[in-house]
Amino acid sequence: METLLNVMLIRFAVLTGCLVVAALLLFTIALTLKRRGKLDDVRRYADPAVNAALRAAARRLEGRNPATPRSRDRGGR
């Protein structure tokens, strides 16, 4: 039991560490782009892609009942 808890704790620490590093990396990139004056250009290019991804996610989630299991949403497969 103790070994399982240690493994779960290590896995949680690794995932949390990865998320923190990713957030710091994104913050550094955004700060660098802002200082060079190119953040608005990046936003203009990224905006259509973000909007398309959000529309696709909304279509995927549309009509799904959160109370039903996923296997029932796929016709019982």
Report on this model:
- The protein is built from three helices and no strands.
- The model has no long low-confidence stretch (mean pLDDT 87).
- The longest helix is centred in the N-terminal third of the chain and has 35 residues, at 2-36.
- The two termini are 34 Å apart.
- The protein is 81% helix and 0% strand.
List the helices and strands and how they pair.
Blueprint (H helix, E strand, L loop, with lengths): L1 H35 L2 H23 L8 H4 L4
Can you tell me the residue ranges where pLDDT is under 50 for at least 5 consecutive residues? none
Strand content: under 5%
Termini Cα gap: 34 Å
Secondary structure class reads mainly alpha
Helix content: over 70%
Question: Tally the helices: what do you get?
Answer: 3
Q: Write the element-wise H/E pattern from the N-terminal end onward.
A: HHH
Main sheet specs: none
Summed over residues and divided by their number, the pLDDT gives a mean of: 87
Tell me, what's the shape? Answer: flat
The overall strand count is: 0
Q: Report the C-alpha radius of gyration, rounded.
A: 20 Å
What characteristics describe this protein?
77 residues; mainly alpha; flat
Short description:
The protein has 77 residues and is mainly α. Helix content is 81%, strand content 0%.
